[in-house]
């Protein structure tokens, strides 16, 4: 068995998603939902040395990250496990005879609820050159707990969060990507709003769980960084690592934010002012997304399926942005609601896997239309 500890410069390990080198362990952390790595090897056995950082979440205790392991081109994982120790050796593949296989490891739980990295490998055999990426498109998703797949595999509607019941590979984003043959990045955090309210006293509250400390954070402050959550977990206060946007050039960017903003605004005594503030910040976020990603990608501003309170405000923000910039490569989409009699619920009224499947196919049809248009100038779908 040979050991491989040089993972940051080893050209035979293919990383995908926004990954970050941890300054404490030296491991490459793949914390975002749907991120991970792929290797091709020939041999009898392949072990991986993982490292993990747990999250203490008061209602459920200690949460560890979950990963899915795929062998060759199978769409069903060979197995799914929790990396439930700070250092964890896992056998990714074992056989009595030498065989050639592709192994793909994907993070299925979200960034903010347990982090995972790879430290090295031990194998009876050799790594081969990675297979070329054959995806037709590249997509990026920016969202909250809905995009994460919060509790989408929960057995009961009133279940609280458990990482084993969150499957980022069965979210609308992952499903839409598979439907159109795309690779994707997902930047999503449960509970996150697009922006902080103008009133600093307004915070996200969870009446059923008063022990959960409200956080003052917003996607507009996290999007441009590789993994600010990870660096904050390690104690960094500023000078976060900025993402190199040239590393992943999407054809389309799908934003699904506003559900948590509405929770804050509904608690305000001056809802009108907060709604106008949201519109202004949403428009500024569109400027940021466009400036960081260039002119090429189509931008889809979506909302649903849990709350539509701010959808008209999103339409207003998009309209103003288009008028100011002349940028016509931007669309709006309103996901259909949850149909509990048919689809049930995930944890805490979140969409179930069945709802995610419908949403993913619904979005895939829109993406085929938008991406199939020569210039991305098809008719706007307001979702109304």
Shape by Cα distribution? globular
CATH class of the largest domain: Alpha Beta
Low-confidence stretches: 374-384
- The overall average pLDDT, rounded, is 92
CATH superfamily of the largest domain, by name, is SGNH hydrolase
Write a structural description.
It contains 8 helices and 16 strands. Mean pLDDT is 92; it is low at 374-384. The strands form 3 sheets. Strands 1, 2, 3, 4, 5, 8, 9, 10 and 11 form a 9-stranded antiparallel β-sheet that branches. The longest helix has 23 residues, at 271-293. It starts with a strand and ends in a 12-residue tail after the last helix. The chain folds into 2 domains: 2-128, Jelly Rolls (Sandwich); 137-372, Rossmann fold. The chain has helices at 145-148, 172-180, 228-233, 259-266, 271-293, 311-325, 340-343, 353-372, and strands at residues 2-4, 14-16, 20-21, 28-29, 36-53, 55-57, 61-63, 66-71, 79-82, 87-107, 115-128, 137-143, 182-188, 252-256, 298-303, 330-334. It has 384 residues and is an alpha+beta fold.
